[in-house]
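Page header: ASSEMBLY MODEL / two components / 414 residues total.
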Amino acid sequence: MTMTQSAVTNPPIHTLLQTRWSPRAFAPTPVAPAQILSLLEAARWSASAINVQPWSFVVVPKDDEDAFARLFGTLAEGNQVWVQHVPLLVLAVAQQQREPGKPNPYALYDLGQAVAHLSIQATALGLYVHQMAGFNPDQARSAFAIPEEYVPFTVIAIGTLGDPDALPEPLHTRELAERTRKPLASFVFGGTWGQPTPLLADVDQAA
Amino acid sequence: MTMTQSAVTNPPIHTLLQTRWSPRAFAPTPVAPAQILSLLEAARWSASAINVQPWSFVVVPKDDEDAFARLFGTLAEGNQVWVQHVPLLVLAVAQQQREPGKPNPYALYDLGQAVAHLSIQATALGLYVHQMAGFNPDQARSAFAIPEEYVPFTVIAIGTLGDPDALPEPLHTRELAERTRKPLASFVFGGTWGQPTPLLADVDQAA
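Prediction written out in full:
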């Protein structure tokens, strides 16, 4: 069986945002090529500072065995445990320099936005996304011949939900744990830093 | 009259992602408090590296005249021209250090994701978002007493669509121009950097 982890939100948010979640239990079913293209097209239409679109993606379906082995080999061991069953990996890369010596300070922020769009498109297609910072960027740069002005930043696992009972501990327990976030009052302020906005007066969120 | 700018996408993407767009023509109608809370709640449930949630938001509705003047004063002149009519500004802030001297390299990427979620929730509510890098972060830090380990990163304009004919040139022309993005083939690669993935063989996108 599979399980979903819809966030308990107050106030309400759109279903796509509420049900987006980063599982570790994936089914091995391949992601259809048309779906992969929609994920990338969603990233493509993300916003970016002066529309420079500082993102690139290396797309690695599991059946591309050679490339999959190269990207999988960059992952932290704790990630390899569950990623071995994932049918699609994408390496997300930021163009941190527009040209050598000309940094783009918005590159990571904009890459994050593009990957968020990809994730929400995935949710709309019944797919799930788990982004990983736990990989070796230098090894990824070398494995895929990524030029100096680009930075390999996250590896994205994509697929349909698998059986959480197939996960070893402690991943199994983590998969079933309630999703948590800080309360709004801890990071949303009014006219002064650290002061709650009056908007939050009626919102009840335990810390 | 107002106009929308839905992206022409191939392959298809979800309507929320297709119709999200950064206008400059905003109507002065205030954003309802319940809607503001939903925007923030959407950001709250975004993903982040080891769930540290390195984002903060200073929420400034136009009727908070003192705070609005302080934030508006940080904006580049070219932005002030159109932002004067915007009913809601939000200053997006990244916690770049978990504690002094302990940087979080994922802070900007994760802030970008949270703002993308906010933008998509806005679209679901019939609102539009225009993110601005064109402001003075030092002035914003001082105006809102933002601590050293946090970085004011973007100012977000939020509201409903206004009449593009009320915009001065060159903003008016820019508002009506066709939205553009690089073709997928220029930033999506297969097993080798710079080599197109076979997935794109049937996608027709002019450069």
